[in-house]
Design goal:
Elements: H1 3-28, E1 34-40, H2 41-47, E2 58-63, E3 67-73, E4 78-84, H3 95-124, H4 134-161, H5 164-169, E5 178-185, H6 187-208, H7 219-231
Antiparallel strand pairs: 1-2, 1-5, 2-3, 3-4
Helix pairs in contact: 1-3, 1-6, 3-4, 4-6
Length: about 230
């Protein structure tokens, strides 16, 4: 492939990596990771609410990695409540998983920026054989993609397996009991998915530029090695 086309490919990959770093940083600070509705089961059972009456007992909830808000509905109108994970909810949520998600988000941002820098260096500079060359580009892309996948797996398990929404909804609720009525992942969660796909795409762009994968060997080198072994 001509050098000019390789520069364009590396520039495109660098821009995509930098955009992913910015997108992940923006996603961390939002409350748009999960949106859902919560049902006040205690209030609904007290009045035996069914059908349209049930809507008076369905509130809303949305949260991110650091904070969120919920609207409490128990038949007397909505009552908003702001909450923070640190330090309020640490005793309620699976703290180790939650902190791991934040940690991997940070690692994703760091390696996305590192990858963007090395992509640009390979486009406009003279690549080295190790960290600056194709091996390094595959490495940064692989680490960033892996971090994105781990973020989605850990956060999904926290929400679905550990019932995070219900634990938040029942925080400091002594009389009423809330149950998750519906929940779905919001924009920030899907941003992490897009970033993971972008880093996987970057690895394909490196291969498209004509560079072999780091641990692959050409047939010619194997033939030469085999001939050398026969000589000795």
């Amino acid at each position: 492939m001509p050098a000019q086309q390789k520069k364009l490919i590396f520039c495109a990959a660098g821009v995509l990596s930098f955009a992913c770093a910015l997108g992940t940083a923006a996603a961390i600070g939002t409350q748009l990771w999960v949106r859902g509705t919560i049902l006040c089961t205690t209030g609904a059972l007290l009045v035996n609410a069914t059908g349209p009456e049930l809507h008076k007992f369905i509130g809303e909830i949305q949260y991110g990695l650091f904070s969120g808000q919920r609207v409490r509905q128990c038949g007397l109108g909505g009552r908003p409540f702001q909450f923070s994970f640190f330090p309020d909810l640490l005793k309620v949520i699976p703290a180790s998983i939650h902190v791991s998600v934040i940690l991997f988000c940070t690692v994703l941002i760091v390696f996305a920026l590192v990858g963007a820098g090395f992509f640009m260096f390979n486009a406009f500079g003279s690549p080295y054989e190790t960290l600056h060359g194709p091996v390094g580009l595959y490495l940064w892309s692989f680490i960033a993609c892996s971090c994105g996948c781990l973020i989605m797996i850990l956060f999904s398990s926290e929400v679905k397996i550990h019932h995070l929404s219900e634990k938040i909804a029942n925080f400091k609720e002594g009389t009423f009991t809330f149950k998750t009525h519906s929940e779905q992942f919001a924009n920030s969660f899907w941003t992490i998915l897009v970033c993971s796909l972008v880093h996987f795409l970057n690895a394909l762009l490196i291969r498209f530029a004509g560079f072999e994968f780091p641990f692959s060997k050409s047939k010619d080198s194997e033939t030469i090695t085999g001939a050398a072994d026969l000589m000795y």
